[in-house]
Amino acid sequence: MTDSAGAIRASLFALAVVVAPVVAAAQQDPTVAAAPTDPNEGLLGQFSARLAYNSEWGPILGLGFTSNRFLGQNQKFSFSGEVSKDSSRYAFAYDNPDMFGTNPAFSLGIYRNATQANDIFTFDTVSYGIEPRATWQLSADRSLTVFAGWSRDTVENLVAGGSAILAADLGDRTRGALGLRFRQQFEGGSFAFSTEYDSASDDSRFVKSLASLSYRWQPDGGAVVIDSGVKAGTIAMSQGNSNVGDRFFLGADAVRGFAFGGFGPRDLNAGNAALGGNNYVAARIDAYFPKLFSQVDWFIPGVFLDVGSLWGLDNVNGGPAGANPVDDSQIWRSSVGLSMQFHVGPGALRVFVANPINPQSYDQTQNVQVTFDARF
Q1: Domain residues of the chain, as ranges?
Q2: Between vectors from CA 147 to CA 215 and to CA 137, what angle results, nearest 5°?
Q3: Distances, alpha carbon 194 to alpha carbons 6, 145, 209, 317, 322, in Å
Q4: What is the pTM assigned to this prediction?
Q5: Of 56, 91, 261, 366, which shows the fewest CB atoms inside 10 Å?
C-alpha cells in the first residue's frame, strides 16, 4: 500500500548522524588467536539521529534504530521517527529472508503518519497501517513483490470555508489492499511498476497504479552525465469517488520551480486549496558537467528540463457549498534551469534555480530549491 498523499516529502536540508552502535558482549579465550571477522558481525544494532529543514514543513527532527541480528541471524528490524511543527511519521520494518526458505523473502511494515493544517493542506490527517510482503528474486536484477495492506485513515478539522470536495472526505475510514510490485535493473537504469486493488469502508473501490523508468548515460568519456527519468500514476475508480488521502500531490519532486502541492486541481473559491489529482505524469532530464572545471573537483554544474501534469477528480463541485465547479483538466507545466552541486566536507550541497515556463496564475512556484545531505 502506498504512502498517503500527505506524507512528508524530501527535506531541503538533511543531516543524518550515527550516534552510537550497540555491541554484543562476548567472552573470548585469550589463548586463541582471533580469526578475521566482519567488522559489523558483533553489532546488535545502531542508533541514528537526523536534523532537517524543509521550507514547507520547517525544522524536522528524527531518530532511528536498526538491528541486523533481530531474534537471530539474517533478520532485520528498524524503527524511524520524524517530527516537525505540523507533521509526524513513525515506521517499523521487519525483514526475514529465511521465513519461507531462500525465496520468497518475507518483510513487514507498520507506520503512523499525521499532519496538521498548514500552508499546504487545509485539514488535519492521521493514518496508520500495516503491510506484510513476500518478495521473489526472479534473477540478479529482477524482483517481484506481492503485498497486502490494511490502514485506518482520518481527515478532520477542515478550515472554515473549506472546499466541499474536501469536506466530503472528512471522517474515519478503513482500507484493505492487495497488490504487486515489479522491479527490473538494467545497465544504466531501472524500471519499476506497482498496482494494487483497494477497498475502503466508505464503499469506494479502486485500482492504483504507478510506473517509473530511469536511465543514466555518460557520453564523451564521462565529461557529460545525462540523467533522465519518467514516472506516472493513476487511480481508476470502480465505485465511489477518490479520497484526498489517496490522490497524488506533486511539487519540485516532479517539476522543479513549483512548491509541493503547487500545481494541479485547486479550489479557487475555497482559499485556493490544493485538491490533488487522480492522474499524473512527469519527466525530467539533467545534464551534468563534472569535468567542466578540471581543477575544481568539488563543484559540478548542470542544466535541466522538467515537464509534468497532475489532473483528474471524480467530484468537481467545489466552493464551500459545492456550487462552484473546479477545473480538473490536464494542464502541462514545465521548467528549465541550472543545477549546482558542491561536494563540501562530509556531504553534498545541491542548488537548483528553476524558471517555470507556463505556470497558471493560481500555481505556487518555488524558483530556488536547496538540498544538503551529510552522514557521519
Answers
A1: 13-23+43-375
A2: 55
A3: 20, 9, 6, 31, 34
A4: 0.84
A5: 91
The domain defined by 13-23+43-375 folds into Porin (2.40.160)
**Single-letter amino acid code for the residue at 189:** G
What are the pLDDT digits (tens) for 203-248? Answer: 999 999 999 999 999 987 889 999 999 999 999 999 999 999 999 9
